[in-house]
Amino acid sequence: MEQLVWLIPVLPLVGFLLISFFKKWLPGQASGILASAMVLGSFVVSLCLFFQLTEPVTVNYFDWIQSGSLNIPVSFLVDHISTVMLLIITGVGFLIHVYSIGYMHHDEAFARFFAHLNLFVFFMLILVLGSNYVMMFIGWEGVGLCSYLLIGFWFKNTEYNKAANKAFIMNRIGDLGFLLGMILIFMTFGSLSFSEVFSGAAGMAPDTPVMIAITALLFVGAMGKSAQIPLYTWLPDAMAGPTPVSALIHAATMVTAGVYMVVRSNVLYTLAPATLAFVAIIGTVTALFAGTIALAQTDIKKVLAYSTVSQLGYMFAALGAGAYASGLFHVTTHAFFKALLFLAAGSVIHAMSGEQDIRRMGGLKKKLPITFLVFLIGTLAIAGVPPFAGFFSKDEILAAVYSQNKFLFVLLAATSVITAYYMFRVLLLTFYGSFRGTHEQEHHLHESPKVMTVPLLILAVLSTIGGFMGLPPVFSEHHTFSEYLAVAPGFAAHEHSHAFEYTLMGTAIAVILIVWMAAYNRFVKRATIPAADEKEFNAPVKVLYNKYYVDEIYNTILVKPLDHIAQLFHQLVDNKLIDGIVNSTGTLTNSASGLLRRAQTGHIGFYIFAMVVSIAAILLLNLFVL
């Protein structure tokens, strides 16, 4: 089966090429069906690998770069980490593709959308399959490019173009850290191959300066790609793209790349406890910070976007605590319920004729029964309600962090409460109470077609039962997910006493019930609706609504000064120096040609005189010089 690994990334690439070159000849929804079929094929091959894999396999195809001691082959590493990621990318990605056939049905650039979706999946598969850091970096840059193309998909809108540029540029900052980390890895180990680097690191002492530097630089890359403080502001703006793009970026592909890179490099991070502590702090602070912002947002997609930033913080907190399996477990469950929530939000937006403001929704429960059901399941999963998927993975992270740092545990526990509250707020304001939209919107309310609801139902099932692959010791002696990963170094399961587990779960359930009652009382019984005018917000809500003014701060201390510097260079260097040199060359040429033009008199006698003088000069030159 290893001989067919190449098919996994190649199928979406073929889909991209076919749709790009032959879209004019593909009738109706054929491009969407073709793109979905290609990702489905990748999923089938990935599933076969998942069941047949017994030990890690490196599949080499050809040498790509050979220069001195640097050898970069095109090769894939298939192990238990990559197969988990392959199933997430192709499985959830396939459902998003199918959903998109219905969601993008009336878009004039239907074929282009699916071409870019296939290309996105291709690069993400290269990222997780690469057997060295260069192959990973190719996929890393590829998903950055595709995010730019898809976030700015509706490029005629200037604001959407700005959001795409913001995502692309901010990710370049993180990518520079990743690139510098790769250079330092090669200088230290003489290779960029995972196997050689990790075996070379095995004999190194913990917390050496070079190991801290390598892991810190790699984490800078992860901070950009997985939207951690301070490089997180691009992700909420990425909502400019179509809703299926948001689901693909937030659930199955791009933002999980940073988490995957740290998990893949766990051997290096284990040797850098100082970096792990930093990762845990950044993850925890990001989780809490983004969670508080989500409390005051009124755009349904923006709430989910900040929720993603917060959940990614949870994942990095787990990695910082050395719980790599727990972090990857939450990546998996999060892929299920976050894809579900985004696609369900897309179903709401579809029914509301493009409306995204939850203040103008309400009472959709009866009009959109399937969408309500799946959104409810996704909300319960992300809130950590048993037995839904998020309950098991989130509590596992809390337990792992508790054993490492009690203060960070308290912050993450508070974040968990905040998460439950803002998700219940969105659910209640959207589906309960009376309808607050226009009469025309109410008249056109309808459930989404089956091509959209079937993927939602499948994701709802996964969000319900997905957590059972990671049952804690109080329920089962076998943690299926951790046991599958245990063959890889650094993936030993973290165990805690049964008393602690029961206390943690009992407290979580009690707090969630209290939060539900508080949210229900506020948004349903008292029918409290966020103010329509920002002027009516009190000071704390205004700060949260404006996202702590971080974008404004960045704009003041970074963007505007750089704009002024750019304008200065434009005036002095571009306009005066470069244009001066170019224009002077043109002026000199014109002047010289003007002088030479005077020799063109049109008189034959003058031409004969010039010819005779020239011949005489040549003869004298030959006589006296040569």
Order of helices and strands: HHEEHHHHHHHHHHHHHHHHHHHHHHH
Quick one: overall form? globular
Mean pLDDT: 90
Biggest sheet: strand arrangement: 1-2
Uncertain ranges = none
End-to-end CA span: 80 Å
The percent range for helix content is over 70%
**What is the β-strand count?**
2
Portion in strands: under 5%
**Helical region count?**
25
What is the CA-atom radius of gyration, in angstroms? Answer: 30 Å
Class of secondary structure makeup: mainly alpha
Main β sheet profile: 2 strands, antiparallel
Oligomer kind: single chain
How would you characterize the overall build of this protein?
There is one protein chain. This protein is mainly alpha-helical. Among the domains are: about 270-545, no CATH class; about 550-625. It has helices spanning about 5-20, 30-50, 80-105, 110-130, 135-150, 160-190, 195-200, 210-225, 235, 245-250, 255-265, 265-270, 275-295, 300-320, 325-350, 370-385, 390-400, 405-430, 440-445, 450-465, 480-485, 500-525, 540-545, 550-595, 605-625; strands spanning about 55-65, 70-80. The chain has a two-stranded antiparallel sheet with strand order 1-2. Helix 8 (about 210-225) runs antiparallel to helix 11 and helix 15 (about 325-350) runs antiparallel to helix 17. The radius of gyration is 30 Å and the shape is globular. The mean pLDDT is about 90.
